[in-house]
Structure formats: C-alpha cells, structure tokens
Amino acid sequence: MHRWLIGGCGDMRPPRRRIQEPQVQEEPRPRRRTSSPPKLRKTSSEPIMLSLPKDLAEFRAMSVYGNLKLFTYDQLRQATGDFSPTQIIGEGGFGVVYKGVVGAMVVAVKRLNPEGIQGDREWLTEVSCLGQYSHPNLVELIGYCYDDDHRLLVYEFMAKGSLENHLFRRACTLSWTTRVRIALDVARGLAYLHGAARPIIYRDFKTSNILLDADFGAKLSDFGLAKEGPVGGKTHVSTRVMGTYGYAAPEYMATGHLTAMSDVYGFGVVLLEMLVGRRALEPSLAGRAGNLVDWARPILIRGRKLEKIVDARMAQQGAYSARALERVARLAYDCLSQNPKVRPAMSRVVLVLEAALAIPPEEVDDGDGGRGGGDASPTPGR
C-alpha cells in the first residue's frame, strides 16, 4: 500500500510528484552544547529532542552524526551488485531498498528516488531520527551517502522482511503469541518516540513499515514522514496531511492537526489487521466490508461475534486464551476511537499488551482449553 498526500478533506488522490510540506512556525529550539558527548543515540529511559537540519548544508556542518559511517556511492554500488534488480528487497517511502554486503556485514541500502521533489527533506528527516537516537524497536541506521545527487541510507538487515509480507500471504504462519509480541515491540518503539521532551510523531504506521528480524523481533522503519510534535502547551502541530490511506486518523485527515494520538489510531488499524488477518482496505469487497475499521470495530467488543472474525489461521499455530483475545480486541477498539482524547497513550498500550501476553492459553473464561482448533469462520474476502 502506497503513501498518499491529501490535498483537502476527502481528497485522497495519489500525486504524480510529491509536494514540499509548508513550513510551520514553531518556537526556536535550544542548540545542543558542543561540549556534549559525541554519542547522542539515546535509550528509551532518557528524554529525547530531535535536532533536524533544515537543509544539506546544515546537515554537513552538524557534529551529532559522528556515530554514523559515511559511505561513498561507489562503495554502495559495489555492495549491491550495481543496484541489481535481483537484490531488491522492498520499497520505502522515497526509494528502493536493496540487500547488500559491506565487508562481512549484510545490510539494507535504501536509495533515494532522484525524481522526488520531497526526497531530500524525507532523507534528512530519516537520517536525523535514526542517526541521533537508538532503541531496540527502531531499525538501526548504520550510515549514509550524499555523493553529488545521490542520497542513500544503510541499515541493519532484517532477515524476515516486513510484517506485511507475512500477515497477508495465504499461508500465514504467525501464531497468536508471535502477533502479540510484534505488536508489543512496535508499541514500545512508538512509546519511546512519543515520550520525548518534544514528542516525535511517526505519522506512517503500517505493516510494510514494521520489519522483522530472524527471531520475529519487530522494529519500526522508514522515518521519512516523522514530525516533531507539540510542546509548550500547544495541543497539536498543523501540517499538510500525509501518510497512507486507511491508516491516517480521521481528525488528522479532516484538519491537518497532528498529535501523538494520530499514531495511536494507525497502531489500532495495524492491530486490527493482525487480529483479523485482512488489509485495512479491500476494494474488492462491497460496502462496509471493504473498510476493515468500519466493518470490524463494532464487533471487537461483542464476545462471540468477535470469535467469528478473528484470523482462523492463528488457531492452526497453537491455542490462545479467549481472555487475552478480548483484552487485545478491546485495546484495538479503544485505539480506533473517533475521539482522539479517549484513545490510550502508547505507554498504556504497552502495559495492556504485556498483560495479555502473560495470560497462558489454558486460562480462559469458558473452560474450552483456549482458542485452538476452534470453529472460527473465515472472514470476508479470505
């Protein structure tokens, strides 16, 4: 599913070329002291403040990226077999991602599309977010390249690819426990971003941006649309509406007012996709069934009806608790509220998922031994 830039309420045309975001007047941010330690990649227990260069000239002058490796274009060209089509492993928000080898290390190399108007800005945003801060559930940025007109980023290689590629394949083998662990991992990543002195709003939360390592540990990737959130008593940041259709919060689409609760809504969409095993949008299905949130959200708090819409493939991978299912379904319901004020903070989401994951399969309300091999019927469109 591709990103969309939304020109106005209800206008969701995919642009032929990206449009530069208008600059929003914000309070000036204090400069970092030059005497600070060179390593500014902070962990989740520390408050964070994003230092975003306004252009490439300022980026080159900043010292906070000293922990990143600077690659030449030729190095990355050789690492990817001259950017061979056989090495393509995906597409990010602003270019193609290749598998490569640098020395003895397998890496992922994201190459900026030179025709994109907004590419430089997204490149700067991503290198700023991942270059300055580190968390176990954010993909690690190893280095970058800005030779001439070439803009590339080099990441750790995530062996299992994206959640999207696993969840929506016909033979999905993701168990209940694996899905909840993935949800918990990325919830921790979002909670870290939101828990900053100046919150960082991810703004493009979706299954294709969740990458999985060899053990199905999950990390957030693609920070090209990340935005600094409101501070100083402000309730929101006003910005052009950007993101992916089906995942953007309704109030953000209608007003352009961006808050951390916009990310919570996107998280709720992905959590619902993981519960039901269907994409957020299914154009081939008629009426409400084509929009997963419209069709499934009312059922999330309706007991027996909930059992009939959950992904039947989970039961094939092992039993799970009905009580845990109800807790996670209720969480998704709350995250998808039309009222952003009643959505839970991501720190609360983390606690709920941790509690749900701790419930053993045999602990159920009706004594049927857990949801394994049950009679859950397929959902529409499967």
UniProtKB/TrEMBL annotation:
Keyword Signal: yes
Any GO molecular function: protein serine/threonine kinase activity
Annotated segments matching region Disordered: 1-47, 362-382
Record's protein name: non-specific serine/threonine protein kinase
Entry GO terms, CC: membrane
Top EC class of this enzyme: transferase
Native organism: Triticum aestivum
Keyword Calcium tagged: no
Signal peptide range in chain numbering: none
Localization annotation: Membrane
Primary localisation category: membrane
Assigned keywords, A-Z: ATP-binding, Glycoprotein, Kinase, Membrane, Nucleotide-binding, Receptor, Serine/threonine-protein kinase, Signal, Transferase, Transmembrane, Transmembrane helix
Family: Belongs to the protein kinase superfamily.
Record field: catalytic activity: L-threonyl-[protein] + ATP = O-phospho-L-threonyl-[protein] + ADP + H(+); L-seryl-[protein] + ATP = O-phospho-L-seryl-[protein] + ADP + H(+)
PROSITE patterns: PROTEIN_KINASE_ATP, PROTEIN_KINASE_DOM, PROTEIN_KINASE_ST
Binding, ATP: 110
Residue spans of biased composition, Basic residues class: 30-42
Record's bilayer topology term: Single-pass type I membrane protein
InterPro entries the UniProt entry points to: Kinase-like_dom_sf, Plant_Ser_Thr_Prot_Kinase, Prot_kinase_dom, Protein_kinase_ATP_BS, Ser/Thr_kinase_AS
Enzyme Commission number: 2.7.11.1
